[in-house]
Specification:
alpha/beta; Dihydrodipicolinate Reductase, domain 2; nine-stranded mixed β-sheet; Rossmann fold
Length: 392
Amino acid sequence: MSEPVRVGVVGLGIRGFWLSHLARQCAETELVAMADLREDMLDLAREKFPGVARYRSGEAMAGEAPIEAVVVATGDRFHAQNACEALRAGKPVLVEKPLAQSFGDLRAIAQLKQETGLPLGTYLEMRFNPLHRRAAEIIASGEIGRVLAGGVIDHVGRDRAQFFARARTRSRDAVVSLVLQKGVHSLDLLNGYMGASPRRVSACGGLLHFGGDAPADKHCRDCAERETCPHASSAVGSLPPVGIEIDHNEDFCVWSEACDVEDVSLVNIEYHAGIVATYQEIHFAPHYALHITLYGDRGQLDIEANHDTGEAWIEVTERLTRARRREQPSEDTGHGSADEELLADFAGAVREGREPLQGLRSGFESAAIALGARQSLDQGGSAVELPRLDEV
């Protein structure tokens, strides 16, 4: 076995500390450095990750730390900047989703990656989930024939931890759109199943349920209705494996005037191969679940991953006979061990000088769909041509 890849993590929120924990635990990686602009997060890193070097910026860490790769876990708006800093410093980089928040930044990352030839991965881990791996195997076997159309529904349900309207994700300034912030996981799965690159999108939607006239600075902790409100949330995020609790100050009122991101988005996608798909994201569904339907010329494949009920299954229906069978290859409806497997694959890519399984294309094309949907919504639903990675 080769020596573990020495990595540094930039961005020390709950997700950054989780990825730091994985890098420390993973046999293929060694956590050597951590970086953040906030001194209190660096103090927490000193306490929970003794012996790991600390830096005040991702750029300083990428240029000065004795590391072989960078993991980017900063806020969405900083992903492109941190990724480019790492590549310019000669470091392979693994970027948390979404890869970037603009077409221009997607192109800039792609150009730098091509110029440097360094491995670049995107933390879109759902293809590593056993449920989706099995679905990909069925498609590859030809059982449903050539996939011609597909559809995804993201039900974002009633679990209090999943209400995007009560965090910084309520703001377009922070996340651009929830399709970009959350939906790229499902869009990446869809792109893989369709087996083609997206060409054009059109979208409709709106802020139909959340938002309102509550003050922008209203918090659940100060609200007289916090004991009875079904959307009340805590400002404290926890990471039990590391023993970390962080007051992130994001227990905002979901009925706030500051909410300006769509809670319903419907996106039509046209692919270069002439095939088509739809993506739906509903943030006030009664449950938290993902459903995917794929239509081939020989049959139909459905995937259900319901985080509330624990249902996880694949159903195949033959087109002409309507014969149906259902598989339950896994009880895992979410990330499971996918985070660890993606990190290990990225480390292998760095050691072997190859592309990660979840590389630039996954991050570029999933983000491009979401950004195109944002533009289409702003333009009244007109079609938006997407940048093509092969032409950057």
